[in-house]
Amino acid sequence: MEVQLMKQILMKKQAYHHSTVRYSFLKRLRRFRLMQKRKKSIFLILILVTTLSSQLHVERSLWVKERQSNFWQYIVNRTFNNKDWYENFRMRKETFMYLCKELDKEVRKKDTHLRCAITVELRVAITIWFLSTGTPYRVLAHLFGVSRSSICLIIRQVCTAIVKVLMRKYIKYPSGSALISVIDGFKAKCGFPNCGGAIDGSHIPISSPVEFHSDYYNRKGWYSMIIQAVADHKYRFLDIYIGWPGSVHDARVFVNSPIYNKGMDGNLFNGLT
């Protein structure tokens, strides 16, 4: 009896196993057929869309808005004389071209298959025009034939390049014979003996900061950041120190500046006897 019972149990298990395998196989088969139907439907839809699009004329939107740069190409480059350059760019054309040469590696962009990059000269011209006149981005965009977003990006990039390439090269406090030349220049021009530079502070207007905005509200009634500068007898910058909020007194800015520390350490007039 027990053997007969065991055989019946085994037969039932085998039958159940076969039915489970068969059910799983049929389920996978139905899923495969459903996927095939979906692929065929998608393929037919793609064929239909391609056929319709080839028959219909679609008016495409412009990828690049057409702009004119005649002012820069034909007026500035061809008709501006030295007076025009100095009035609008605050420098001669020779100085402008030298500036472009110095900044070329940092400012130049590569051409793409879609369009040519904005030239170094145009990038520098946009930045210098903005810095010298404060012209709004919208006006600059129409003037130079460049979008407002590109104007903003170009000005930031060129200013960063100027600080990186030119600041340490040209704005540095003199020593030795160069310092003697500055002292002699002040004595001859202004009658000041032993003067190594003229120092003063100025407020640079800024928008109201989100945080600590009251610190930047100066005594003149607007938001600013302070710049302290030292210039020689030819109005050339020898040292700059910037970053303090507009509400800070000039004396506090001065005692925290590197040139003050340099003077306190006795290194301001090195090389003089």
Work out the count of structural domains.
Answer: 2
Tally of strands: 3
Q: Structural class of the helices, strands and pairings?
A: mainly alpha
Strand adjacency order, main sheet: 1-2-3
Rg calculated over all Cα atoms = 37 Å
What's the overall average pLDDT, rounded?
A: 84
Cofactor: a divalent metal cation
InterPro entries: DUF8040 (IPR058353), HARBI1-like (IPR045249), HARBI1_dom (IPR027806)
GO molecular function, one term: nuclease activity
Domain DUF8040: 81-164
Features:
metal-binding, nuclease, 3 strands, 10 helices, 2 domains, HARBI1_dom, mainly alpha, hydrolase, nucleus
Structure characterization notes:
This protein has 273 residues and is mainly alpha-helical. Helix 6 packs across helix 7. It has helices at residues 2-55, 70-79, 82-89, 93-107, 120-133, 137-144, 148-170, 177-190, 250-255, 258-264; strands spanning 198-205, 224-231, 237-245. The model has no long low-confidence stretch (mean pLDDT 84).
